[in-house]
Input
Amino acid sequence: MHIVLIGAPGAGKGTQAATMARELGLAHIASGDMFRDAMALGTRRGMDAKAFVERGELVPDEITVGMVMDRLAEDDAKEKGWILDGFPRNIPQAEALDFALRNHGTRVDEALYLAVSREELLRRLSGRWLCRTCQASYHEVFSPPAQTGRCDVCGGELYQRDDDSRATAGHRLGVYFEQTAPLINYYRRQGILDEVDGEQSILDVHEGMLAAIRRRTITI
Output
């Protein structure tokens, strides 16, 4: 089974992909981990990517796709199947992935889209606070401190990092909806997209994803 998981920052892709991979015996391939591993190992593509990262530039699609295909060629992915988390991020990457997979006699079987409203995404992304003293982490919705602005552990002052602010979260979502959201229609046109309500509980989202996969495996 070959699965692509689509969802905005804050939709819960990482959590759900890791759980799904364990349950179904798939290789969990997260693009961020893949980049870090390739650069740490000093692979040719990893070094190519590192040069762009160190300049603060986006890694070109051809390097990214090449790294993904290298990872998909490893034994665990070939033998067990895989779930891609964080890739593809745009239509050109999706097209390049499809082309590369066809050349290897395979394809994406299922595209799962975790649907979460923009307001809920903003709530999830912009609610984190840290303690200045001990760095304990809180979330104003999911794990708030007992006393607003004070750490439960040491009583230190809580603060919010710039990249956890609502403005930064809004920018991240703007990039996502511009570049990544069109993938929804791309895979829908292929007839392999299933949408799961990502605003349910973690367990219900998991069950919804499993149900979609079970339906899809019947038709493959």
Notes: The mean pLDDT is 90.
